[in-house]
Known about the structure:
Blueprint: E1 6-8, E2 14-16, E3 21-28, H1 38-54, E4 58-64, E5 68-74, H2 82-101, E6 109-117, H3 120-131, H4 133-136, H5 151-157, H6 160-168
Antiparallel strand pairs: 1-2, 3-5, 3-6, 4-5
Helix pairs in contact: 1-2, 3-6
GO molecular function: sequence-specific DNA binding; transposase activity
Domain Transposase IS200-like: 17-133
InterPro entries: RAYT_transposase (IPR052715), Transposase_17 (IPR002686), Transposase_17_sf (IPR036515)
Amino acid sequence: MKDHPQRWPHRPPHLFIPNTMYMVTASTIYKQHFFKAADRLVLCCEALLEVTAAYGWELQAWAAFSNHYHFIAQSPEDASTLKPMIQRLHSQTARAVNRLDGVSGRQVWFQYWDTCLRTDQSYYARLNYVHNNAVKHRLVQAAEQYPYCSAGWFTSNADIALREQVKAATPHSTEPHDDFTPAEG
Length: 185
């Protein structure tokens, strides 16, 4: 970790620390359910995988819903690429959804929130949170049943010790704000 992380002038300030874990949450405008159908959720997941790879962000966990998403990723050496990466993701998915709905220029995304995860406990708690978000929203009974997130892969492929650490991680007061109500599919 650098002694003086790069900052983006924002309130609260955004920290850009190379090779650090970040959690990002984004919401659609007015929490509208633009991604309610399965094909739209697939579109959102595929775009997230594509865009994070293009910017050198290593995805650790993700979950996409009808009106929001969460992801955790490790930043590249230039962590300040977060903003243009999110702008590209939002632009690409908004254009695609607008094309599907036969409209142009409609705003789809409202904004995003990012958190720099600087402790192992925070990282494990957020992994747990992202993977279990579909359960929280009562879309599935077990996280690995939700096809639009990484929980199934994590359950099948992650080292058992890591799975146990994540499972045991307790949410804390800095848990992400999430008052979304995804549409039932």
